[in-house]
Amino acid sequence: MSGRIERRLQELGIELPQAAAPLAAYVPFTQSGNTLYVSGQITVWNGEKRFIGKVGQEFSIDEGRQAARLCALNLLGQARAACGGDLDRIARVLKLGGFVNAGPEFHDHPAVINGASELMLEVFGDAGRHARFAVGASSLPFNVAVEVEGVFELA
Fold first, then answer.
1. How many CB atoms lie within 10 A of CB 132?
2. Based on the number of CB atoms within 10 Å of its own CB, is 78 exposed (0-12), middle (13-18) or buried (19 or more)?
3. How far apart are CA 135 and CA 147, in angstroms?
4. How far apart, in whole angstroms, are the C-alpha atoms of residue 106 and residue 109?
5. DSSP string, 9-36
6. What domains, with CATH codes, occur in the chain?
7. How does pLDDT run across 74-90, given as a tens digit for each residue?
8. What are the tens digits of pLDDT across the range 103-119?
9. From CA 130, how far away is CA 142, in angstroms rounded?
10. Alpha-carbon span 39 to 19, nearest angstrom
11. Beta pairing class for 35-42 and 29-32
12. Bridge partners of 134?
């Protein structure tokens, strides 16, 4: 489809990955009323795992931000699938939750997850403003650097 959000993605030069199949016993998204919940997305680009390791060790904060942005691209890919290909159905980004694979001496988790938050603002404008959490984890699935989940309001 070529709606308003798809045109915005084109303007920004942003390509979304294909929605990935779940890697365990869960579904990629659920909907309750007008609320869409998208399961945590990791640093995968069309099946290829990227950003393997810890932020603050193998990766800088800036690289961690890029990893969070990749997770957010995957969130949008899942949201597009949930909306039957029509991202214009997203009225608002309600909340993001970010997990950063980091050691105990790393304390800049919010700066890393900004990569996901900033993407939502770029794509959705004011409707991309959201509540959020950003926490550290001693490990993440497949040793990826970042995982981000999202909650969206549907029109």
1. 19
2. buried
3. 10
4. 8
5. HHHHT--PPPPPPPSSSS-SEEEETTEE
6. 4-154 (3.30.1330.40)
7. 999 999 999 999 999 99
8. 999 999 999 999 999 99
9. 28
10. 11
11. antiparallel
12. 98
